[in-house]
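Mods, move this if it's the wrong board.
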Amino acid sequence: MVIGLDAFRFAAANARVRGLYSRLLDKTDWHALVAAQDLDAAIALLRTSVYGDALGQAEHGGTIRLELVERGLWATVAGNCQRAMAFTGGGVYSLIVVWWRHFELQNLKAILRGFDLGMSPERVRTFLIPLGERYTLPWDVLLHEHSMDGLVDRLANTRYGKVLRAAYPSYQRDGSLFVMEIAADIRYYRDLAAAIMRFKGDEGKDARRVLGTRLDMLNILWAFRHRIYYNLSPEEIINYTLWHTIRTDTNLIRDIALGAGPRDILARVWGEDAFDLSLLEGVESEGQMMLGLEVTLNRYWRSLASRAMRGYPFRLGALLGYLVLADLEAHDLVTVLEGKGMGWDAERISEYLIGWEE
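Not the wrong board. Structure tokens:
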């Protein structure tokens, strides 16, 4: 347990986080959103929430553009992450800065996709999360490069420079953006892993439980995706995953690559009773299995974050718990809005939501 000066160090940050946590949507809000008749009705409900400003900025000529709504939602989450880190210092501050950079990672991949598809700078910009003055990549300069090669060169002195340059020949040869995106992903999550492992004691336990679990999840999901969607060899799958996380290693990834199923893998990593596996029952395709596996893992992750928020307040876990819950709320909001836009009914949308029924 954190006592004395350590408790004092977390007090201001905890007060800020508790205030931000109180602004997350409650069960009543979620039931209303899921039950909304259509996209317009869902957006009308969101206008009265803490996300109202994000919707206002997404209006152009009296109409709402869904991609602008989504980037506004993520901008709200990124801004709240900055507010949470404002009262921290030292290693905690450094960890949250690294966590915050996953918004930059999303933007970098949006730019890579835009260049791959030949989009104009103005069109690509509509998919970027507004990050205010806190950023480490030169977005305006990147947007106005004239080729993928120029973009990679421009990134040379950033943390992504070496990995993107190494992946670029494969992109040129095969024309698949996969190698570029996964190179950026692995680079970022190795940074996050390093930041997590700097902590010891109770802080280390919190960091590994809340954020380290994210690395475990991603490694498993990546391995299944590489096998199912890209038909990669076991050697390639190992190469395109993290070699070691809190609970996964190359032996586990190799077993997935050789055909192990998700039930066996989840039981091996977290135990027989850690998950509700109902979403993996009776699936008719590997695509459905992947959707079920992702939601199952995210719901487990959310349960860890919720427990951290309800735990001892003057610990790192409470702070990290909020950050995860805020991220997953935005994820669920995007699911609702896109589902309404495609005409899905409430039952179908709810199958893919992570936390609204908790």
